[in-house]
Amino acid sequence: MKILLMSLTKIKYIPYANFYLNRIDCEKNDVHFLYWNRDEQEDIIPKQTLTLHEFCYPQENEVAKHKKIAGFIKYRKFAKNLIKKEKFDFIIVLPALPGVLIYRFLEKHYYKKYILDYRDLTYEKIDFYKNIMDRLIKNSAATFVSSDKFREYLVKSDNIYTSHNIDIAALSQRDNRRELPREHMPIRIAFWGFIRHVPLNIRLLKVFGNDSRFELHYYGKEQATAAIIRKYISEKDIKNVFFHGEYRPEQRYEFIKNTEIIHNLYDVENDGIRAAMGNKYYDGILFYLPQLCNKGIYMGERAEKYKTGLCVDVGSETLANDVFTYYNNMNWPEFEKACDEEADRIIEAYRAGEKVISDILG
């Protein structure tokens, strides 16, 4: 079978592609991967045997939406030409937005011959967009959602399954942090991923900046938000905040050893963030690291329900003291048991999803 995985970003930023690649025999099938190189820098080459198709067009992530239109138009043309030329038997769309760009083409030529991977709410409140998404889901062989909360915003369908963002390969590294002493001063709070959300992070700088009980660490690609944060740090002469730059996914196995608490907080200004499940939630339960989550969002509700983290109001005047008290009163055996139980629930759903893929692709 000739299979295409198509994405709107670089391969290094979509580790969830392995959810599909690990279920495809890349030696027996002719597997292709279309990705968008936006920063014109080197990408990670997958370990599997793939034919790569690079769409290279410079575009920063943190720009106004209207400035992204030209890039989307060019990508759409590139993708359609590639599909017509290669005549793929099956397409896996990572995530849903590339499918929106070519939805009529998929509808006409790939009915029940594609998988839709849905990972973010965007314009579902706009009827036109919602109609396109509903059609994409109904016409897909299967649609995977990365958060069960997303189901509330989508058309009801029997072909929607759950695909958690958990990194199964990380299971072999689970004890990296647990084997090290938990007592560390200052308490190191770490964020990893794409650095966004200016108001939220400025608020955290006001709370934890120059508090000798804490350090804040940022691991990830730096663009406009990071520049604003750095400027604020410089202006306020904050000494306990550190930036470590872009990293490869496997490098987090090392920096988690220098982390006590995960910063898994967001500006919760839209439904997408309130409904999403972020990668750091899964890292928290895998590596037995407590995490800070927002109150009033799905991840926070889940962390509170299953006792895998602390739900906080970032506007609270007692936030720093609350976090300090929480960490220093951790019952580690109970916490680790809670992480194991949550990991078991998530892995069970993940394995069920893998079976769906195997059944579809043979």
Give the helices and strands, then pairings.
Elements: E1 2-7, H1 18-21, E2 30-37, E3 51-56, H2 69-86, E4 90-94, H3 97-101, H4 103-109, E5 114-118, H5 127-139, E6 142-145, E7 160-162, H6 175-178, E8 187-192, H7 198-208, E9 214-219, H8 224-236, E10 241-243, H9 252-255, E11 261-263, H10 271-275, H11 279-286, E12 291-294, H12 298-306, E13 309-312, H13 319-328, H14 332-361
Parallel strand pairs: 1-2, 1-4, 2-3, 4-5, 5-6, 6-7, 8-9, 8-11, 9-10, 11-12, 12-13
Helix pairs in contact: 7-8, 11-14
Would you kindly provide a written description of the structure presented here, covering whatever features stand out?
There is one protein chain. The chain is α/β, with parallel strands linked by helices and 362 residues long. The protein has two domains: 2-163, Rossmann fold (3-Layer(aba) Sandwich), CATH 3.40.50; 169-343, Glycogen Phosphorylase B (Rossmann fold). The protein has 14 helices and 13 strands. The protein has helices at 18-21, 69-86, 97-101, 103-109, 127-139, 175-178, 198-208, 224-236, 252-255, 271-275, 279-286, 298-306, 319-328, 332-361; strands at residues 2-7, 30-37, 51-56, 90-94, 114-118, 142-145, 160-162, 187-192, 214-219, 241-243, 261-263, 291-294, 309-312. The chain has a seven-stranded parallel β-sheet, sandwiched between helices. Helix 7 packs parallel to helix 8 and helix 11 crosses helix 14. The radius of gyration is 21 Å and the shape is globular. The protein starts with a strand and ends with a helix. The mean pLDDT is 93.
